[in-house]
Amino acid sequence: xxxxxxxxxxGTGTTYSVSASLPATxxxxxxxxxxxxxxxxxxxxxSVGPVFEQVDHKALDRRNVVKRKGTVDYGSxxxxxxxSPTDAGQVxxxxxxxxxxxxxxxxxKIEYPTGDVKYFTSQIxxxxxxxxxxxxxxxxxVSISLDNTIIDVAAP
Length: 156
Fold this sequence. Notes:
This protein is mainly β. The protein is built from two helices and ten strands; from the N terminus they run E-H-E-E-E-E-E-H-E-E-E-E. Strands 1, 2, 3, 6, 7, 8, 9 and 10 form an eight-stranded antiparallel beta sheet that branches.
């Protein structure tokens, strides 16, 4: 048996950017027409994606439980950042959390080193800052909750 090469890639080179505007159409073309601002010092982007509620049906005439998909939640995530309050992208996040754009729905873009892109929309629910100790970088966490489907775009 011969060993095959793995197709996994590291997260190095992944970028996250935001726009305070919404796409005219909720598709690849609509998102690509927007101007996005890169967010600096992104440390982690935890998982997001659809999670369906499970709806159970228990008929009296049989023992098995019939399971179906109910409503869908596209997820929430807390992204880790190195605190950089003068970075244009982080300024937009701060404005969306508790500033001038507190009620605004933002457009988001995650671009992977492969060239694949994810687009989605959400409000900014929080932007917090933390100092762990003398041997750490001052960090921030931004919390977002997706409010619509994720538009996946394959690398060209």
